[in-house]
Amino acid sequence: MRLKGAQILLETLVREKTEVVFGYPGGAVIDIYHELPNYPSLKHVLVRHEQGAVHAADGYARASGKVGVCLVTSGPGATNTVTGIATACMDSIPLVVFTGQVPTMLIGNDSFQEADIVGITRPCTKHNYLVKDVEELAQTVKEAFYIAETGRPGPVLVDLPKDVMNAFCEYRYPSVVKLRSYNPTIKGHTGQIKRIMAEILKAEKPVLYAGGGVISSNGSKELISLARKLSIPVTTTLMGLGAFPEDDDDLSLGMLGMHGAYRANMAATNCDLLIAVGARFDDRVTGKIDEFAALAKIIHIDIDPTSISKNVQVDIPIVGDVKATLKHMLEVFEKEDRKEDWGEVRKDWLQQINEWKNTYPLEYVQKDVIKPQFIVEKFSEATKGEAIITTEVGQNQMWTAQYFKFIKPRTFLTSGGLGTMGYGLPAAIGAQIAFPGRVVIDIAGDGSIQMNIQELATAVQYKLPIKIAILNNGYLGMVRQWQELFYQKRYSNTVMDIVPDFVKLAEAYGILGLRATEPKEVVSVIEKALSTPGPVIMDFVVEPEEGVYPMVPAGAPINKMLLV
Amino acid sequence: MRHTLSILVENKSGVLSRVAGLFSGRGFNIESLSVAETIDPMVSHMTIVTRGNDQILEQITKQLNKLINIIKVVDFINGDFVDREIALVKVSVNDSNRSELLSIIDIFRGKVVDISLDSYVIEITGDEDKIKAIITLLKPMGIKEVTRTGTVAMSRGSKTKN
Hints:
By secondary structure, chain A is of the alpha/beta class. Chain A has 23 helices and 20 strands.
């Protein structure tokens, strides 16, 4: 079958089971857009800014576990994707981003809308390609999907010069990918797994430290059964929230790290065995690195060998897929179990944790002004862990991480590694496209919602009933909090008193806008929003100078928390 | 500690940039780098000389292996490899230093590859210490220019990387 480059691209997308493409047309991709209507199984979502396209594809990928796909034009279209790509790269999210490029004979001439996007994105993609010959196109697209979703997932960019999209060649869908230089290890080393199980069985104060890898490998079920069978408490990272049900009062410690729960940070500091599962010892988790889990033996399970012994020296490393490795560990355990009552064995340790929990639980005091934490709690109660929650970045993100009870994986979408403000709204769009029937809520701040607010039009266009809750404190709150605590309250440029009237803004987009200014209005606003079929903006006027606590000052050990 | 890394990569455009970018982006140091095709035109061979403690070298090796186009990385840490470098040295020459210069070249088994009225271009091959040594000896005579290839390395014996 002789096809044109643009047709080969779309045909291959269909064969790779792509259902949705988030994109924005332009001169360099006009030929692809011209062919697109001939492929009705590919739904195209027209965003309002290319950064929104990548975050939406990212939200789609995190919520569904499938590869997110974007299509944008050359030059500014391509450079606008960079923040989205870097966000996905830091959080290991599988994306394939197609960018248009000027015709091959013009590359390097500073042509109109030319950018060396392969050069620009080399350090923030898992891999990238410039397709110079239409004969290589199908194979390249196939490889891009394969690389994006296998091993440690990540974004792959494919740059498509306009003349390649118009060139013809014989099309054959490549059924296999063989890359001599890329072979991720899936199955963990059997000997190491036995050593790990031996350590776990003899540990007195073990803690499971679960990260985003548990979610991306779909290993939540295995994690839960390992933790429950052996009565091991579990703390999750920001990226790992949802991997272990937070309504498990005995074993769930909540999040650890800079804004972690007191009990989680104390448990990580005092444990004698730390089992890191798909987590990477990020500086926001460890605080002062030499004092992190200093008393413990450290086991590290990760699919990416570079994560191991990068930040801390590990006693027993295992390179392998989290789900496969946990499964293997459970099998070994079943064989070697001494039929002990593990709840009894761990009684003292769990009791100690419970004491920490009771000494300093997460708490706030609400009087006449709405506390942001209260709003998050009410959303949590109203949706019972069934909703998909996205956040922006800053205080809104940390309060959501602390006060929302996540009980299922893939229900919390947030920019963890890069910390990208403006992520939440487009990510909510992507999640809602993946799951049209579920409740999707973006918990935002008044600062960060403005970073990609143009995507409201996208939500309206595709009738996506996403709910946007703005915790409006009139500040860039997280930076303000740092200025309050460490910079003598000099609120340099964190006062953002000029923001749009978000209710009127909602109306301008033809959607419902609601506002709550007093605590007693919060629940009714939430109920009204959740029962409205379309998109809704909720403007919650909250305590302006509320802080996120506990807080570990930068560079301090994580058991030295500011509690109020 | 100094390490010589021998790396097989797919011979594709952009690979050198990925490797160089990895070193600069993660704050690793390249002391020298050389790259050329192997006997298989699809594969190139890079030799990188770098410095760092064991933990840094472990990271460098792992990060290199993580790059999709990299086929194999070997860290030559022990003495079981040979390494060579070529230097071209342009030296001022006159009647008073000509014979001394020629004898130094002879001792180092170098070659004069270009002659003009007042200068020689000398080709010298050896490991880094040897190159350093001859440069030290030639310096007082007036070195006009030095160009070095950077180290290339290979394991001893019949072992191969493929």
